[in-house]
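Why should sequence recovery work at all? Because a backbone constrains its sequence more than one might expect. Tight turns favour small or flexible residues, buried strands favour hydrophobic ones, and helices have their own preferences. The token representation captures these environments compactly. In the example below, the structure is given first.
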């Protein structure tokens, strides 16, 4: 199995990352821990010649490798490393991305040696098993960063919604004052004023509709 080299792409804007996508990223990141353990277990069973273990180990390794690529590079609606914290988690001082690709390489070598019945199969398997616990620590830390980023973005999005609501309220208030003043002016004028009164009335209607939309939006976001 060939290992795809990680590529760092320009990240999308954080505002484009929905709560559903963040949940998928957290779940996928957390699943990597289980998959890494399953790879090691099935490799051990394959070494002991348990039926089907080699096939399961290879399939699990493929899933693990594909998931890692999706997390780092983005795919099928996933944004890749969209924040500085995530880029630091994978490519920072700990270089977790390299540790993950090294694990994939170790697993590939071990499974190939087991399949060929190589005398070095036991050595390759021991190297794979020895890498699991340190990798689990790194994978756990990465998942914690995803969870942290999810909470941070949720707070930022909520603040953005509140700021938007306040801005809409201010606009609605200004529009209401303008329409009210327009109706007063129109009541003191001639035919042209009456025509202006129609416009002021429409503006009042729009203002009320805007206020209703704001109220509904506030109730929805509060319930969420």
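From this structural description, the recovered sequence reads:
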């Amino acid at each position: 199995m060939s290992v795809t080299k990680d590529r760092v792409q320009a990240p999308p804007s954080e505002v484009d990352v929905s709560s559903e996508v963040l949940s998928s990223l957290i779940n996928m990141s957390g699943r990597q821990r289980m998959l890494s353990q399953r790879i090691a277990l099935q490799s051990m069973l394959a070494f002991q010649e348990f039926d089907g273990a080699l096939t399961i180990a290879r399939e699990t390794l493929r899933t693990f490798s594909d998931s890692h690529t999706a997390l780092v590079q983005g795919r099928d609606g996933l944004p890749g490393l969209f924040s500085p914290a995530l880029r630091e988690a994978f490519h920072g001082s700990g270089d977790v991305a390299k540790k993950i690709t090294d694990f994939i390489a170790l697993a590939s070598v071990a499974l190939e040696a087991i399949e060929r019945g190589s005398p070095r199969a036991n050595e390759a398997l021991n190297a794979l098993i020895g890498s699991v616990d340190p990798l689990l620590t790194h994978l756990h830390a990465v998942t914690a960063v995803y969870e942290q980023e999810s909470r941070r973005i949720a707070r930022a999005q909520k603040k953005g919604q509140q700021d938007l609501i306040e801005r809409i309220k201010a606009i609605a208030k200004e529009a209401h004052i303008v329409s009210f003043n327009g109706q007063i002016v129109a009541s003191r004028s001639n035919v042209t004023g009456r025509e202006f009164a129609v416009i002021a009335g429409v503006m009042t209607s729009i203002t009320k509709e805007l206020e209703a939309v704001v109220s509904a939006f506030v109730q929805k976001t509060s319930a969420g």
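A few observations help interpret the result. Confidence is low (pLDDT under 50) at residues 1-11.
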